[in-house]
Amino acid sequence: MEGLERSIDQAPKKSVWKEIYEKKVLYLFISPFYIVFLIFGLFPILFSLYLSFQKWDGIGEMEFVGLKQFKYLMTDDLFWQAVGNTFIIWFISTIPMLIGALVIAFLLNASFVKMKGFYRAAYFVTNVTSIVAVTIIFKSIFGNHYGLLNYLITTIGLEPVEWLNSSFLIKLVIASMVVWRWTGYNAIIYLAGLQAIPNDLYEAAKIDGASIFQQFFYITIPLLRPIILFTVLMTTIGSMQLFTEPQVLLGNSGGVGGAGLTITLYMYKQGFIDNQFGYASVVSWALFIIIALFSLFNWKVVQKTGAR
User: Signal sequence: where (predicted)?
Assistant: First the structure.
C-alpha cells in the first residue's frame, strides 16, 4: 500500500496550462461566460477600486489623491443623509412587505382557496412590471395638487396632503412603491417553502385543537426560518440599492431637502451629474461595506430570534 502511494506521488504531474491545452475544446465552450464576466464584472470592480484613489472627471487626466476622498466621505453630510434616508426607507418598507408576503403565502397555501394559479400569477405581475411605469403611476397618485389620493381626500372634506413636500411622506411614498413591487415576489418564495412543509403537521395540529393562528405561529414560521432569513437578506441588499424609484419620482436631487436621496442616487449624482467619478467610486465601495455589514447584522438577528 505504501509503495502504491509512493508511486502515485512520484508520477509526473501535468501543468495547469498543459491540461488546459489538451482540453481546449471543452474550455472553449465555457469561455463565453468567463469572457463576459471579465469584461462586465471583474474589470469594472477593479477599475472602480482604482478610481477611488483618483480624482477624475471622466475626460481629462487622472490625479492620484490617495485616501483623501475616503477621508472626505467620513465628513460628507450629504452622504450620511443619504445613508439615513436609505435605512429609514428600508425599515418602513421591509416589515410590512415581508409580513404581508408571509400572510399571502399562508392563505394561498390553504386548502379552501380556489384558483391558486391565477392568484400566484397576479401577485407576481407586480414584480415584472416596469419600475419607471410604476413610479409614474405612483407619482400621479401622490401628486401634491392633482394627485388621485388628494382628490379622494378632498371629496370627504379634508385638506389635501403635500406628499412630495414632506421629508417623512416622501420616504413613505418610496417605501409604498417598494412594498407594492416586492410583496408578491416574496410571497411566491414563501409559498414554495410552505409547500415543502408536510401536511401531516397541520393535520396533527388540527386534531389537537390548534387554531389557524396557532398553526401559523408555531408551525409555519419556525419551519420557514431559513427562507425568512433569505428574504430578509435579499430585501436588505435590494433596499440599499434603491435608485429608479427616487430618481424618477423626485429627480437627481432627491426631492425637497434631499429627503428621498438614497445612497445609490447620491453615487449616480456624483458620477454622472457632477462628473466626480473618483468620489462616486468611493461611495460605491462604502455602499458595498454597508451592505455587507448590515446583511451580517440581519443574519445574526434572525438567527438569534429563531434560536429562541
Answer: none
Q: Is 28 exposed, middle or buried (0-12, 13-18, 19+ CB in 10 A)?
A: exposed
How many Å apart are CA 175 and CA 240, to the nearest integer?
Answer: 12
- Global pTM? 0.84
Q: How far is CA 239 from the centre of its chain?
A: 5
Report pLDDT for 8: 45
The amino acid sitting at 130 is S
- Residue 17 pLDDT: 79
pLDDT tens digits, residue range 275-307? 999 999 999 999 999 998 888 887 777 666 655
Longest Cα–Cα distance of the chain, Å, equals: 95
Identify the pLDDT of residue 23.
79
pLDDT band at 48 (very low <50, low <70, confident <90, very high): very high
Which burial class, exposed, middle or buried, applies to 278 when counting CB atoms under 10 A from its CB (0-12, 13-18, 19+)?
Answer: buried
Stated length of the chain: 308
**DSSP string across the chain:** -HHHHHHHHHSPPPPHHHHHHHTHHHHHHHHHHHHHHIIIIIHHHHHHHHHTTEE--SSS--EE-TTHHHHHHHT-HHHHHHHHHHHHHHHHHHHHHHHHHHHHHHHHTSTT---HHHHHHHHHHHHHS-HHHHHHHHHHHS-TTT-HHHHHHHHTTPPP--GGGSHHHHHHHHHHHHHHHHHHHHHHHHHHHHTTS-HHHHHHHHHTT--HHHHIIIIIHHHTHHHHHHHHHHHHHHHTT--HHHHHHHTTTTSGGGTT--HHHHHHIIIIIS--HHHHHHHHHHHHHHHHHHHHHHHHHHHHHHH-
